[in-house]
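User: Thanks for the earlier help. One more: Thiamine-phosphate diphosphorylase. Can you show the sequence and predicted structure together?

Assistant: Of course, both are below.
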Amino acid sequence: MNDLKDICPAKMSKERIKREYDLRVLNCVSEGEYESRMAVWNGLTLTGATALEAKAYVDNAFNKLQEDLKEAQRELAINYNDFCMLANEEINFIKVHVADNKSQYFWYATIVLMIAGTLALCI
């Protein structure tokens, strides 16, 4: 969870919009799964400088989701175990697609080397 607190808010917002589209339109997930996965994203924006361990973070996100649903007088049919599974998947998604700069730099370097190699062959 320490890696995730240092992500640029603008990048996090951009990735969140992509993820919402991916979940709603491309994957057509259920309302419960969508709300569960977005609860993880909502919690990341609220944690700020405090870094929580993954289990404590998931517990807090689940409690926050339950409170929000009660406040909005809505109900979702999702239990804690399903929420934990979805939350851990979403945390891994964020780590790989948003927070992992090393793999992004690797691919950028690979592209630059391929372009340089192609130019070297042509010249």
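User: Great, one quick takeaway?

Assistant: Residues 46-52 have pLDDT under 50 and may be disordered.
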